[in-house]
Amino acid sequence: MKHISIRVPWHDNKWNGTICQCPKNNPFCMMLHNISERKDENKEETYAGKDWNSLKQDQLPACVGENGGFMNEKPYKRIFKHVYAFGETPHTKLLPTTVELQPYSCYGIPFRYLSKDFQEKLNHKYPNMSNDETAPFTTPWVYGRERQFEILNYFKSNIEAGNSLGVFYCTKGNPVDEDAKLIVGIGEITKVLDVQKYETTADYTYPFWDLIFEHGIRTDLKKSKGFLLPYHEYMSLDEDYVKAQTGKSKQEVIDEIKITIPKLGNSQIIFNELSYGCDYVSNHSMLIILNVARKCLESVIKHGLVGGNWKQQILWIDSQIAKVKDMIGPFPAFAEALSVIGVNYAFIIEQDLRNNGYCGVKDNPWEAFDKLMKGELSLPDSVYKSELTHYRILWKNTLSNQRQVLELLSRFEINSEVIKWWFDCPDCYDELLNNPYIISEESLIENYLPVTTEMIDLGVMADPKIQGKWTPKAPSLVESVIDNRRIRSFIISKLVASLCDGDTLISANEIELYIKDCLAADNHQLPYNYLMSNKEFIEEKTVYLNTDDRCALQLKEYKEIDDYLRKIFKGRASKDVKSPVKEDWNTIVKASIDDYNEANERCRNAVADQVKALEMFCSKRLSVLAGPAGTGKTTVVKAFLKSPQIKAEGTLLLAPTGKARVRLGNMSAGIQALTIAQFLTRQGFFDWAAMTPYVPEDAEKRKYCGAKNVIIDECSMLTCKDFYVLMKALDLKNINRIILIGDPFQLPPIGPGRPFADLFNYLKDNKDEYLRSAITKLRYVVRTINTGDSDILTLASWFSGEKPAKNSDLIFEQVAKGNLNNDLVVYTWNDENDLKDCLKEAIEKELPEEEGKSLSDKIRKSIGLDDVNKALNDPSKVERFQVLSPVKNPVWGTFQINSYFQEWVGINKKFSIEIAPITISALDKVIQLKNERKKSTSKEECQLSNGQIGFVNYANKWEKKSTVVFTGLPNKRFSYYSSKSDEADNTIDLAYAITIHKSQGSDFDTVLVVLPKSGRILSRELIYTALTRARKKLILLIQDNISWLIEYTKPQMSVLAKRNTNLFSTSVREDISNIPYVEGLIHTTLKPGLIVRSKSEVIIANMLYERGIDFEYERMIEDNGRRCIPDFTFEDASGDTILWEHLGMLDNPAYRESWEKKRDFYKSIGYIEGVNLFTTVDHENGSIDSTEIAAIVDKLEDLI
Fold first, then answer.
1. Where is the UvrD-like helicase C-terminal domain positioned along the sequence (predicted)?
2. Spatial separation of the C-alpha atoms in residues 784 and 823, rounded to whole Å
3. Cα–chain-centroid distance for residue 1133?
4. Distance CA 293, CA 565 (A)
5. At which of 441, 457, 479 does a domain end?
6. Kind and range of the H or E element at 391?
7. Same domain (yes/no): 267, 375
């Protein structure tokens, strides 16, 4: 008996058998190709909210075929048409067949079982099925009628009404957690219908692939045999109400009730079970799902935000847990383990032993198999009768310790691959038998078919309800939920999962809170001081790190990575090269700047910065060049690479993305830049199967020892492991210079750490002047050097990790009043209903005007596709204009925006192919989604990179084929083929709009950014990254107005700062809700909750707090029709306002000029220095005079 998973699309009215209330605002459902192919938003809007049973067949929504109404309260009819009923196939005799679906019906197609790819595995398990027939056309599916019937009947036979449970889930698209697989409901399967057949005019028919079930979930929880998670109710709640009721944000409480794969321990097995449309869910997996669901419903009750008898559903869950346990045997992976020693009919053998009464549900199949091998049992009609002699030899030669290990491994719901990995490792047998949790630990650390702690629990913790009399025995037996073997496994699970969030270590307190949460379901407590009293055992797999105020734990691998990188970075930054380059950099840089003006102080300072960078490159063994777009990083690198000495030494150019690689390569003629993945692949340091860098055992033989200089661009995108493997792949003793280039304020890397940001902050304020000289930050925008500040970078400066220029707050007023006249334009939109019109208006107004040209022509020209031949020769033209959005799925996401663009440019269906869930057409703009080596149509193998943008050169609906040309690869065409699979990981997507994450490492002439005011993904770095993608012009589409955007300028909104790292200093938060302190990234004060932007402001804020002076930090004030943001604001005894501005960087002419403008404004509205306006300044090297601050504080005490 099995349970089943059933995929459903997102529905905005809880799948109640009606058309969505707002079909146009639900693009989430279109992640499924059947819906994206058929959905007619305009027609569905006409019937919005209508019951399906009141509609004609041609009025039903696209989701009718994808379980969009599995909570239907009324019956409805659906017409089934066979997809093969065309041409000369036998299916043409099949008639459209009407089926009436009863209330609370659902259907599932077991796609995996019907796919050709699965047939070998299915034959291995069940070799008696009919052979498939050869299809008269290419298809990935089983074609033969008999085999289809057999597969469907076999699949259905394991689903038992009244015993099996259905797990309803969304995949790829939902508003709760973007791309995550999301369980939306769990309920009893109350009826399993027979396999349905098509009506026919012939003497044969074919089966519906859709298996039809009825379930017990009801909206009235008192009558329900199951439940829906209250996602819709939670999302409709007011943010302030949630905060008042729970003390938490709306997103936090939603996170507590959602069921996603991470909540289920990131189990690969459960991930696979929640795939392929409809699949089996094992009893072990169902236990894990039910236990997590119970915790989620307990959170619903605790929150008290929505009505309903949730306690009744917890009782239902408890009854189902007991029921599932009754169905589980003690050795669920018996057949998987048996197949490892070469018993090819293992699954049939187990089935026969059980069907013939030799082995009950709670019996030991190993004992029954042993009797079969000894001839004590008889299975005379078995298909493997001729194989039994061979099996007996195999069994006889399986050693006792091997049998012991196989029996242990078969206690867990794991597959033969995991079992074989351990079976083939005899040196591990003793450790495995003593601590089976190492299966989970090693699978997580090695990222090899992850096995969760909870999966091991079910095999080693005695539970007669599961194991009958075959409960586990010592030394594998675990008799306490706080057994240190189990707890360590939880710790490893937490540390590994945290790597995905960017944390390379976790505080002991946060780990204890996590373990306590894991133990809460069993009503057990973690003893005080547990981590310290079990330190010796836990340290076998982790490292304990102690700071002044807390303890943290780190995986050994990442402690090694941190120690190695710290040593390399410090060592090389503190040493000079033996042969520094001597060039007249001053003259070279001046010549590179258009319209250089010696009389312009900005020009002179820009040259000074760039010369400083070049001299640093030439002299240091490791140097860091930082600066936002447009500040001259390209100029500096070009000049460096032109040096005769550098040319003679050679330079290796590396970048993390394809676009960054192309841009870096364009900086020097004759030097081919590589992506980091390409370089590591060449050296043998990249695992393409796992898509991850690694250090091979023979690393010393593989090290790169070619060029003497290495330049790495876009370093903010590199994880600590990326840097580690990269440094290991270089023969460092033969490398003169390593030059790291990037912008430390961009989004942190996808993965562990923030090494570039940590290195930047370590060097820039280092007390050691020699280390401080290894970094240069370019501060001047070269293209606006004669015309003034860039509005783009002025706005972006608020989202960087540094204090913006004093008059830069004027930018918010300019945006609000529409007074921008530089390189920035801002539009606002209200909600999903007017976004499309606003987007269209912005494009029509801001893209270059052309007399008599249509919107389609304007868009084509903006991306260089008005002349295809020119685009073939120079595909980089397609990157001239780019739309960005934070996310993919909502109405403001890239999926919907791309569909708008396709509508506006007008696609021709004949010259299109479907690559589910999108359709790409000739001249569409597209993006490559993975790193891969791919042959062009001319058979030349090329490297394609994740994020590489191109255009569709050719597409043909009938051939189901398209060809694409990418930037950096002119006149090379790459083939892509039609796919309708909802489970496939596509390698290509539309790219009129791409996510901000995908844009990292790229820049474009004109960028349009859509910014919604809500969303879990929004952060200070995300907005900064979006703002700095434009080379010439930025168009912002901001929801409502810019006021909410100001909140994201605060340090608290930094995702970079929230990461726990240990590269140069241990930065670790106390718990998940706090921000760790790390010098240079976060400046905390004594005033509770106050985080400021600079170390000098910390000193001021702390002194004010200690003296009891009330103040506000960065409070916007309005006067004389203008708004500004002073550093500190006070009220004197009469109620008048007093301001305090702290000034830094006055040696920077742009900063000084900015302050002078702001000071003049203050003067114009009555603020006089020394009376109601006070200032302090940073001195040399950023130092501050505490006596100056104390003197002003004294004056304030007198005034307030």
1. 990-1037
2. 10
3. 52
4. 42
5. 479
6. helix 388-396
7. no
Cα–Cα dist 1137/1129, whole Å: 7
**By C-alpha distance, which of 521, 9, 28 is closest to 289?**
521
- The dihedral formed by the CA atoms of 286, 290, 296 and 302, expressed in degrees to the nearest 10: 180
Average pLDDT over residues 883-896: 93
Residues of the chain by 3-state class (helix, strand, coil), percent to 5: 40, 20, 40
What is the per-residue pLDDT for 1078? 57
- The alpha helices in 687-767, defined as continuous H runs, are 699-702, 720-729, 755-764
| 1051 occurs within a structural domain | no
Domain tally, the chain: 6
> In terms of domains, do 924 and 839 share one?
yes
In a 13 Å sphere around the CA of 143, the CA atoms on its Cβ side amount to: 14
Q: Which helix (H) or strand (E) is 108 found in, with range? A: strand 105-108
Domain at 608, CATH number:
3.40.50.300
pLDDT confidence of residue 1138: 95
Residue 546 DSSP one-character state: E
pLDDT at 1077 > cutoff 70: no
DSSP string, 317-335: HHHHHHHHHHH--S-TTHH
Burial of 1046 (0-12, 13-18, 19+ CB in 10 A): middle
980 and 860 part of one domain: yes
1153-1160 long-range CB contacts below 8 Å, 24 or more apart? Answer: 1154/805, 1154/806, 1154/807, 1154/808, 1155/805, 1155/806, 1155/807, 1157/806, 1157/807, 1157/810, 1158/806, 1158/807, 1158/809, 1158/810, 1158/1124
Cβ atoms < 10 Å from Cβ of 1127: 25
Residue 1036 lies in a domain: no
d(CA 145, CA 149): 6
**pLDDT tens by residue, 511-555:** 999 999 899 877 889 999 999 999 999 999 999 998 777 899 999
pLDDT in tens, 555-598: 999 999 999 999 999 999 999 998 888 888 988 888 877 777 78
Encoding tokens for residue 458? Answer: 């079910």
The pTM is what?
0.90
Judgement on whether residues 432 and 473 belong to the same structural domain of the protein: yes
Q: How do residues 1006-1060 score in pLDDT, each as one tens digit?
A: 999 999 988 778 999 999 999 999 988 999 999 998 889 999 999 889 999 889 9
CA distance 760 to 776: 9
State whether 455 and 317 are in the same domain: no
Domain of 549, CATH number, reads: 1.10.10
Residues 463 and 486 both lie in one domain: no
Say yes or no to pLDDT of 989 above 60.
yes
Q: How far apart are CA 804 and CA 810, in angstroms?
A: 11
Q: What is the span of the domain harbouring residue 683?
A: 585-784
The mean pLDDT of 654-672, rounded to a whole number, is 84
Element (H, E) at 1044: helix 1043-1047
- H or E element in which residue 1022 lies: helix 1020-1027
Residues 1162, 1192, single domain; the answer is yes
- Domain boundary (444, 479, 514) is at 479
Tokens of 559: 């402690």
Write out pLDDT tens, residues 941-984. Answer: 888 888 899 999 999 888 889 999 999 899 999 999 988 877 77
Same domain, 60 and 154: yes
Residue 820 lies in a domain: no
Query: Which two structure tokens, joined as six digits, stand for 1140?
Result: 């305090």
1154: tokens are 């900015």
Q: Which residues, including other chains, have CB under 8 Å from residue 709's CB and lie 6 or more apart?
A: 646, 649, 650, 651, 652, 735, 736, 737, 738, 739
**587, two tokens:** 């003259």
Question: Would you say 10 and 28 are in contact if contact means Cβ atoms under 8 Å apart?
Answer: yes
* Structural tokens at position 814: 């300019």
Cα radius of gyration rounded to whole Å, the chain: 33
Asked whether residue 908 is assigned to any structural domain, the reply reads: yes
**What 3-state class would DSSP assign to 381?**
coil
Query: Which pLDDT does position 1075 carry in this prediction?
Result: 63
Residue closest to 391 by CA, chosen among 347, 346, 354, 336:
346
